[in-house]
Specification:
alpha/beta, Glutaredoxin, globular
């Protein structure tokens, strides 16, 4: 039994470490909606944060795993105040998205993709599960492309390493 657990741990760790994946051109060009109702593409959002480490959370207010992970995310925000936080919602309506932001008191930049996980952005960014966390370094390079709510220890370690480089 210990061997199975060890093998599973190695596979999980390796899959988290193999993060050479980058956003596709399609993902970078997909339009998201800002809280003000403006269309913004992911590439512009990443460029706006150049010079800072960014943690992107792909989430939805209906997602129980997302809600369960919010205390961990808020703890990460308190431990890493020099990181910029960007939220991309997969909610079905803008109203549900905005209510979710308010209900959970999420601080950071907020965007919504009206087509959800199966829409153009979800497909282009390979969103197959939420919550999904992506870390972009100060140069705009994706250093973690696929992390989930169970990866917060790793996420915090990487964020600390990134902000220590400055």
């Amino acid at each position: 039994m210990k061997n199975i657990a060890l093998i599973f741990s190695v596979i999980l760790f390796a899959s988290c470490q193999a993060q050479d994946k980058q956003f596709s051109k399609e993902a970078l060009s997909q339009k998201l909606v800002s809280l003000e109702g403006n269309d913004v593409d992911l590439g512009s959002i990443i460029k706006r944060h150049q010079g800072k480490t960014v943690l992107i959370e792909v989430w939805a207010s209906w997602c129980s795993d997302c809600v369960k992970a919010m205390p961990l995310l808020k703890d990460t925000q308190s431990k890493n105040p020099d990181v910029d936080y960007v939220f991309i919602s997969m909610d079905k309506t803008a109203d549900a998205w905005k209510k979710g932001i308010e209900k959970h008191a999420l601080t950071g930049e907020h965007y919504w993709t009206p087509d959800g996980m199966k829409g153009a952005f979800g497909k282009a960014a390979d969103v197959d599960w939420i919550p999904r966390y992506i870390i972009v370094d100060a140069a705009g390079k994706v250093i973690v492309y696929r992390a989930i709510e169970k990866d917060f220890e790793k996420i915090n370690t990487i964020l600390k390493q990134q902000t220590a480089k400055k």
